[in-house]
Design a protein that fits this description.
Signal peptide: 1-21
GO molecular function: dipeptidase activity; para-aminobenzoyl-glutamate hydrolase activity
Number of domains: 2
Domain Peptidase M20 dimerisation: 205-296
Number of helices: 14
CATH topology of the largest domain: Aminopeptidase
Structural class: alpha/beta
Strand content: 15-25%
Radius of gyration: 23 Å
Strand order of the largest sheet: 1-2-6-3-7-14
Pfam families: M20_dimer, Peptidase_M20
Protein name: Aminobenzoyl-glutamate utilization protein B
CATH class of the largest domain: Alpha Beta
CATH superfamily of the largest domain: Zn peptidases
CATH architecture of the largest domain: 3-Layer(aba) Sandwich
Length: 474
């Protein structure tokens, strides 16, 4: 069987609706929940809980789902804030992924100008509050549609913690929680609307911890061995490595601990590294060199070093059979339309974006479909190697906004963000309905998936056998 399909063939695949399935309007089910989307997204934005610490956020989503009759399995894969919610019986299993963790070190009010919130140590700079709320809305809309139409099938919402550097989905994949899923659906906040078949970079991270000998930096410097020297020596060698890495690779770090006072030789220092590459083997090759740099730095500075792998994600395995249908559903829904008040707010944000700014009207447009390499990383990648997976991006942020920015935090807590989440929810709902009613599409997606993985594929995570780092944000 061929892996990809002509536009005509895809049009045939996308017409699998059964007559009985047309007795309910799935988009109307999403529209009826606009208030829920806003309420939940706002609460997740206010809490801005970090990875594996999303106790209130996880509980809120579970409460909303339980009120709609979903059965809940909490604490799956050894992660207290991970869960699976399911409704339905028989038929195919369609999964929708939900994220809800925030990012440390950045926060912002809902203002269109830079306005950090005093005392708040994290913010929804990647829009995961919208991701969680939009996915929740879609799952409930699909559940109501299944009940009204009597369509056999099970809709699942996977509550997936710690996407930001914690790889929650990897542990869930490793535990086999996606093995019986027919298709998985996800989405992400963005500054544009797209269902392009976008791949990602595989990545791995670790905290490198150097131990030295403390001493008075002026009175007895010869007695000291600076752990910070070890970190800086490692960073110097790593920065020289950049010249000799593939152009598609990425490596970055932050010093998370470097001492407390200049006149004390620090006996502990820590640096947190990320390595990315389109292929897991490329990550491993660079990683081996990085470990050698750490050993060399310790040897040269008279210190000791050890490291802990924190997270690791495989690259996203795209499924064009599904992506082209998702693109059609997104075009059916359309983009984000601003009110006059929202447009004025958006123009103020746009002024802060410099050369990256785009016309705010582009939020209403759908980007052309294509297949491309994205330079971010996500633990959805591991899910995509366990079951056919498809996603989209919705314009929840002002066009030109970068993820992990204060502008993204601001928009994620505003009506513009909520509207983008509704666009995503409608698109995912239509996609799920198509999958429940179109066995030919499911079969074609599975055929492409099997061909892409190959007959001898065996899943391997980039985490090894470590347990979830539940304290990595403490």
């Amino acid at each position: 069987m061929t892996r990809f399909f002509t536009a005509t063939a895809l049009a045939v695949l996308a017409t699998g609706f059964q007559a009985s399935a047309q007795t309910a309007d799935p988009v109307a089910e999403v529209e009826a929940q606009a208030g829920r989307t806003e309420r939940v997204a706002t609460q997740l934005w206010d809490w801005a809980e970090l990875g594996y610490l999303e106790t209130r956020s996880s509980s809120l989503l579970k409460e909303e789902l339980a009120s709609e009759g979903f059965s809940i399995k909490s604490g799956v894969a050894g992660i207290p804030t991970a869960f699976i919610a399911e409704w339905g019986d028989g038929g195919p299993v369609i999964a929708i992924l939900a994220e809800y963790d925030a990012l440390p070190g950045i926060n912002q009010s809902r203002s269109a100008s830079r306005d950090p919130v005093a005392g708040k140590l994290a913010g929804q700079a990647c829009g995961h509050n919208l991701f969680g709320a939009g996915s929740l809305t879609a799952a409930i809309a699909v559940r109501r549609w299944l009940e009204k139409t009597g369509t056999p099938g099970r809709i699942r919402l996977y509550g997936t913690p710690a996407e930001e550097g914690g790889s929650g989905k990897v542990y869930m994949t490793r535990a086999g929680l996606f093995d019986d899923v027919d298709i998985a659906i996800h989405w992400h906040a963005d500054d544009s609307n797209s269902a392009a078949a976008r791949t990602t970079l595989a990545n791995r991270s670790a905290k490198f911890r150097f131990k030295g000998i403390s001493a008075h930096a002026a009175g007895a410097p010869e007695r000291g061995r600076s752990a910070l020297d070890g970190v800086e020596a490692m960073n110097m060698m790593a920065n020289m490595m950049h010249e000799h890495m593939p152009q598609s690779a990425r490596m970055h770090y932050v010093i998370t601990s470097g001492g407390e006072a200049p006149n004390v030789v620090p006996d502990f220092a820590e640096v947190f590294y990320y390595v990315r590459h389109p292929d897991p083997k490329g990550v491993q090759d660079i990683w081996t060199r990085l470990e050698d740099a750490a050993r060399g730095a310790a040897l040269g500075t008279g210190t000791e070093v050890e490291w802990e792998v924190i997270h690791g994600n495989n690259a996203l395995l795209v499924n064009e059979t599904l992506a082209r249908v998702m693109d059609a559903k997104l075009r059916e829904v359309g983009g984000v339309e601003y009110t006059a008040e929202e447009a004025a707010w958006a123009r103020e944000i746009s002024k802060t974006l410099g050369d990256a700014a785009k016309p705010i009207e582009s939020a209403a447009q759908i980007e052309p479909y294509d297949k491309r390499l994205g330079y971010g990383s996500t633990d959805v990648g591991d899910v995509s190697w366990a079951t056919p997976t498809v996603g989209l991006r919705a314009a929840t942020w002002i066009p030109g906004t970068s993820a992990h920015s204060w502008q993204a935090v601001a928009a994620s807590g505003n009506s513009i963000g909520f509207k983008g989440a509704q666009v995503a929810a409608k698109t995912m709902t239509l996609m799920a309905v198509e999958l429940f009613t179109n066995p030919k599409l499911r079969a074609a997606a599975r055929a492409e998936f099997d061909a892409s993985r190959g007959p001898d594929y065996v899943y391997q995570s980039l985490l090894g056998d470590r347990e979830p780092p539940l304290d990595y944000r403490n």
